[in-house]
From TrEMBL:
This is ABC transporter substrate-binding protein. Keywords: Signal. It comes from the Bacteria. Transmembrane segments: none annotated. GO terms for molecular function: transmembrane transporter activity. Residues 560-569 have a biased composition (Basic and acidic residues). Residues 549-587 are annotated as: Disordered.
Amino acid sequence: MKLTQSHRRLRLFVSTSVIAMALGTGAALAGMEEARRWIDSEFQPSTLSKDDQLKEMEWFVNAAKPFAGMEINVVSETITTHEYEAKTLAKAFSEITGIKLTHDLIQEGDVVEKIQTQMQSGRNIYDAWVNDSDLIGTHFRYKQAVALDDWMAGEGKDVTSPTLDINDFIGKSFTTAPDGKMYQLPDQQFANVYWFRYDWFQRPDLKEKFKAKYGYDLGVPVNWSAYEDIAEFFTNDVKEIDGVKVYGHMDYGKKDPSLGWRFTDAWLSMAGNGDKGIPNGLPVDEWGIRMEGCRPVGSSVERGGDTNGPAAVYSITKYLDWMKKYAPPQANGMNFSESGPVPAQGNVAQQIFWYTAFTADMVKPGLPVVNQDGTPKWRMAPSPHGSYWKEGMKLGYQDAGSWTLLKSTPVERRKAAWLYAQFVTSKTVSLKKSHVGLTFIRESDIWDKSFTERAPKLGGLIEFYRSPARVQWTPTGNNVPDYPKLAQLWWQNIGDAASGAKTPQEAMNSLAAAQDEVLGRLERANVQGECGPKLNPKTSAEEWFKKAEASGNIAPQRKLANEKPKGETVDYDTLIKSWPANPPKRS
């Protein structure tokens, strides 16, 4: 849950509160006629038939009767998907159930602050929260969030939909803690992927020049070496296209909170930091935090972590080199929200770190990167990996904003809010919601024929979510015991490297030490029980390198003699054709 995050990031300084309730609609008017009207007018397309939608809504109507007239308050950050929920689905829910639902939209930093306040004070601020699954390690350890498996089988059984179909949620593993229980219900997801100008990459003259210089084909980079070669080629060889100066790379570097998620969103694992493991490396994750059992035991290499190891330092070094050499000059002074619109202006060849939440804004008619027929001139593809990366590691980040119930919320209010959380993720509405926000949560939506038809105008989004590569894109995981406390350390320390105040090694040494200090404070406070941090004693980096080699694990890795192996690319159309054409079978 980057302390402010994603498409949200384009609205970094905007804080909006939207109150959506059934104005003038009381419990007496709620029911199946309202459900039928919404199904006919709004909830299309759906993976369910209209008859099955009505059956699902009938369950909601009956389950909500004990709560009719209650005023329930929920909150999320501001992105397109949540705007649709707040302005449209909350109104529908109120009219259908008779529960007066207020869905507030605020900056994600405010969501984090307020949920922390409720957890610490016990005062009920909101009845349900959409917060990133990045907080799974926090919620699991502090025991302030309701374990949903226990809830659905116990106190919340009478308000748990028989058609919820938990196994249809693609982010289920992201919200499951080391105890095997699910603590959050995914509401929206998006990934960071590789973005590139497909039309430029297809030009015979550019393909010929690239191969003559580098000895391999211009295409989707498989490794960072190829990404760097392509960035060099467009910036310094091609230089201009149609009279416009072009750049081979885009990024941002302002010392700002938004710089933090640029790295906590799996940048280090893309380089090869951490261990193998999906959804997160074990025992060392992509933040460089080592976990033994369920206990975090250190971030620094000297404690068995990898936050300041050679792979992490390499990731920062490449980030800085590429921005300096291949990005527009103003990039280093930009934050996330300022840099986000730049590729759509038509002078950037590729971007290694691009969020699919931008898709809707990148396909608008009239943009320099959109053809007259509405198809994009660009495509998205799986991200390339760094030289330390090994098969079996995660390869990118996936944001998963997820519904969370807190124990401090009175049970009856929690039940009514749980009905709304299920409503906005139900099969009756989720396909339409996916078309609005393009933030998929259900396998059944991804494979619906409506997205097969729409796919050519979405630049590879559907192909990516239907591909086997998708499973390597995952959120922050269980190793991070207090996301709010630790996440703020990243932008401050890496910002020093971006400004030139520290070398990449110095910056990562400082970050690793700061993380260990927080882990140590949590250990001394003993507020997280048997799965709270317990720091390893400091030894030498050499000792931990040897332990990793002897154990068969990866992290921490020694510095490679050659951090730039030969570039490798793959043809985009060949890549797409290699992915399966049929949805996976579910048990």
